[in-house]
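Narrative summary of target 7.
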Amino acid sequence: VVLLWQYHADPYFIVCAIAYMGYKYLEAATDVLFGVMQRMNAYQTIAVSYFLKGILPVIVFSGALVVGLDLVWAIVGMALAYLTVLLMYDLKCLRAVADIKPVFQGTSPLVEQCFPLMLFTLITPYMTYITRFAIGEEMGSTMLGYYSSISVVVVVMTTIASSIWCVLIPHLRQLYLSRQNAKLVRLLSIILLATAAVGAAAIGAGAVLGEWALALVFGREIIPYVGLLTPVLFASILLTLVSLFSTLLTTFRHTKSMLACNLLGAILCSISAVPFTKAQGILGANNSLMLGLGVQLLLLLAASCYWLIKNQPETIEKTKRIGK
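Modeled conformation, tokenized:
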């Protein structure tokens, strides 16, 4: 909101941004509740909640626009639909299996553990913002609109990936604590193969159906920029893998390592965004994002391998002997 005000954005647009921030706050509250549900293995409740929160807000938002309400009321309606599910379904189901009440005693260690995670949640939105900022500054709002329309696929794939990874966290954590590294590596290999298969299918589908699908959704004006779809899909695959290994390090409780890896990639993206956009246009901005994500992925992969090696029983025993 401060950035919008500094750039003299339209007050109506700022109000829309504030309303949408309220919606995102409810999503953050959902993450907290889902963490409690995961500890109680209430995965069916989580699945139903995801379904309701995906369908109802979209119906309310679209319906509000169809009947002639403006964007602010459409966003408010979407947030209210989300809040209704949170109160009437999530909390009701959770209270049936757990006694929920706020506790503030002994929260300092928890805040210390969560602070790197909070910063991490800001990194990906920042990287997408800085690349779009570079396009807007160097090429204008029209070109930014075309890129934003095509890159919506990044948001979709990231949301799907986050939904899957959050379900896997308890199992990954259990394997790591029990030092079943072979099973953990096997599970990660399956996930990576599945991600590669889905990514390849998405790129193939984009090559065959991309022009038709984008023209159907955004109009034929976007057809000259369909060539951006494949690089954007590559960026979304990288982002999916970054999300996976960030989740993995989080389950290992090495959040500081995870944050450091992601920050270095974000810094590189920040440095390269404008120069790449000046040299290569929209493709350069996407290349800057891919460069930052690629660095993040390599660092996260190295950190994951390091902590897995450190977690091997023979490595732990050798460390103890050296300490003695």
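The mean pLDDT is 82.
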